[in-house]
Here is the input.
Amino acid sequence: MKHLLFISGCTFALALGACQQETGGAPDQQNQAANAVQDHAAGMTGAVAGPAGAATAATFVTNAAIGGMYEVEAGRIAAQRSTNPRIKALGEMMVTDHSKAGEELKPIAAAANLTVPTALDQRHQGLIDNLRGASNEDFDRVYLQQQEAAHNETAALLETWGRTGDNDALKAWAARTLPVVNAHQRMVDQLDEANADAPR
Here is the structure.
């Protein structure tokens, strides 16, 4: 999903509410509509969350940790549910790489007396719920779209903190983690293009 349409957060919230309350359509159609809203919302947030989230060390740690936990959980689901060997392998890589980054972040945050969250926020939990609810036919598309938005967001967060952060240890962690996230972005883009060209 290369070009995301940015609409106001209120519009997305209303649209998501309508998707969840709608009872007249088929369950798959309702879930696809909710997925689309969440995917666009994630993309919209990804365009701004990096710079905004890097304002303080506490918010940086919170956003980085939650983003990593989301990647691990989404990767586990992809490794289990996808029938595409390349996407299954991508999911396994996400679990490995983001688990490692998360474990490295914990002692750095502790040394700065910063709390690392242990649960997803509402937005990321919504993405996980939509991923779990995706049909088998749509799963790969939903996963890759979420991954593109999520890695754009994480890359912006890490790049911004690496330039403007006020904690050297966290800046070093961001600098080590950013190339891994950039590599993930390239893999996701390649798989997204291949998936879009695949026969239905």
In short: The two ends are 18 Å apart (CA to CA). Residues 1-25, 41-53 have pLDDT under 50 and may be disordered. The domain at 9-197 is CATH 1.20.1260.10 (Ferritin).
